[in-house]
Amino acid sequence: MCEHCEQKERLIHAHGSYCRFLFTVMQGSLTTVKMWIQRWFCPSCGLTVSTPPPDVLPYYQSCSLVVTLILCYCLSSTHGIHSRQPYMNTQITTSERTIFRYLNKATANAMVIQQLIREVIIDAIEPKPVETLFKGGLDPPAFFKTKYRQSLPAISKLWRSFAILTLGLIELNIQPCNLLARARKKANTSRKKFLF
Question: Residue 41 is part of which domain span?
Fold first, then answer.
């Protein structure tokens, strides 16, 4: 089905592929991966559509796992964004401007991110009661009030969504990239934005 005209009568057909480099985490270290992404042509509207994997963020060099790791570290660390420390003891180093861009775009979608992560965890954990996951509530750390004074409600929602993600990963015992890819796929089918 074409994303642009959404017609189903005429089939889209292969229209070549393109190469893309992506930063991802493999075996605990940051790795650059070369990917070939299929492009499709829609004869109805005359436009092309590509089908990247669900973990790939459009127009970003990093996959959603790397972006999530950076945001989680920034939100849970008492260090400011301006400290030039590598994240999570890996080679992931990012400029302040990129971190601010990630934070601004993610906080704008904080509630959607939280709902999508929650839906994916609920889908995966069924028939078990979900109430067993979050027993005592999920309040952000005390330093949030001084670190994020201007946008405390949105940043708190974003932190809560990553806390839900962490608890879900521990409970389900799966890789974070799989859960993020499921959330991104669910966002694509419901026409929502996950992360950005």
Answer: 1-52
